[in-house]
Give the backbone structure.
Amino acid sequence: MNTPLVTRPATQTGAGQRPSSAQRAIIRHALIVGLPLLALAACSSPRPGGSLKKASSTGSSATAPSQPETCAPAQLAFSLDAGEGRFNGMSHSGTMLVLRNAGSKTCTVPARPLVTLNDAGRQTLDIVARDPTGAPTPSIPVTLAPGATVTSDMRWVSNDVYDDGHCETPAHITLAIGDETISTSFAGHLCGAGGQSSSYTLTSFQPATAPQSATVAKAMTYTCDDRRTLEVTYPDHDTAVLTFDGDVHRLHIAISASGARYVGDRWQWWTKGMHEGWLAPLKPGETIASARGVSCTAP
């Protein structure tokens, strides 16, 4: 019996069989074309994590440098400085707003002071700010390092020079810091024309001095005979900053027969050494207090 001959398709190869010459040609062509493409893909593929590192350093997900927070009133010392009368002129007067960072952290305050003037009952008076002619409106907050001070000049008409004019006499000035306020006592007469509000001008805050050293600016706490607590800071040899009853008062050195006497902001502070002093009010027109005042001592 003759055994039939079975033939396999040329495109199929069994295990152990060598590919035909046509199949080998197809494989060689695939290798020639495919290998360079694989090599190019391998070179151009990003390394694991490479694109993530770049995005984290330059992309929108990078963390921006933090900005100092708005100053809290508790870390600020707010006072007025009449500058020994340098603001006074023909029917004009003024004072300097002094704001110092008495805290330990850097913070910011608005470049443009936002103030209201209040009567003795803390009610806001109808006195408005008027922009100085040609003065730009600052928008970038002022950064205050610990111990740094900024100042602003405030000026107004102090005599009733208007027909049907009027004058107001505030007892306090309040400065807005963010959503909070800080205030100090105020002395002055602000006048306006009939039918108009009294007004004043304010310059933007400007740096006054470099931060004082801890030794010079160290605060001392005095206990007075009337049970009042008095905190005094001497930022320089000619100035005493007194804080009591919730207000800050900036006083300047004055002539004295003995000890160190400071006057200003309707108060006199007279010390004999660094641990004993007398606090007395200045009556209108007085440059030396007529009363001895209350005795205060520091440990």
